[in-house]
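Much of the work behind modern protein science is quiet bookkeeping, done one molecule at a time. Below is the pair of lines this work produces for a single protein:

***
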Amino acid sequence: MWAIHNSLKGWTLYSLTEREIQLMINTLSSNEIKLVKVCRQHSTEWHRLSREEFPQLYAPVGKFEEGYPALSSDAASESTDTDYFVVKSKKVMHPRLHDRIEKEFPATILGQTQNFNATTIDLSEGGIHFNEIIPDWVSGYFIVRVTDGTNTYSVMCSLVEDQKEKKRVQVMSEESDPQFMRFRDWLDSLR
């Protein structure tokens, strides 16, 4: 039996079969997989999920067709299916959800194998703007630690898309995350 923990979403499932773990892996994004840990029952520690360490968990799922009827070639298409097209909507400027706090604080982006030290330009509950350009090795989801001199605040982040210069990250932590609540309370104290 296996257990799987998704630190990004904050859930853990126990007593799963190998096939159930394989199915879970097939439903996770590549960014989530980077943050997943697995553990065999009665093991003494959790391990990062990797194809090299656990090749059996990456085996194809649902490939055993024996005992099932063949799908007809039109099974994917029904008479109720409709064609669709995308219409480009008008760009609308929405008001900012969170007030920015324009202060410089030392911050660190934590990668799996390396860290990037930077300085904030501004920060809010929704994101952090850095003075430095974020290196290309930073991708997916990652932890950002901001220090105010006495305390350190950690939040889960991802890069803001479509930036000319990669200097902004969006906070992805859930509102119920204790680390995020601490971060939000700290921001409120700076206002």
User: Anything to note?
Assistant: Helices lie at 18-27, 30-34, 178-190.
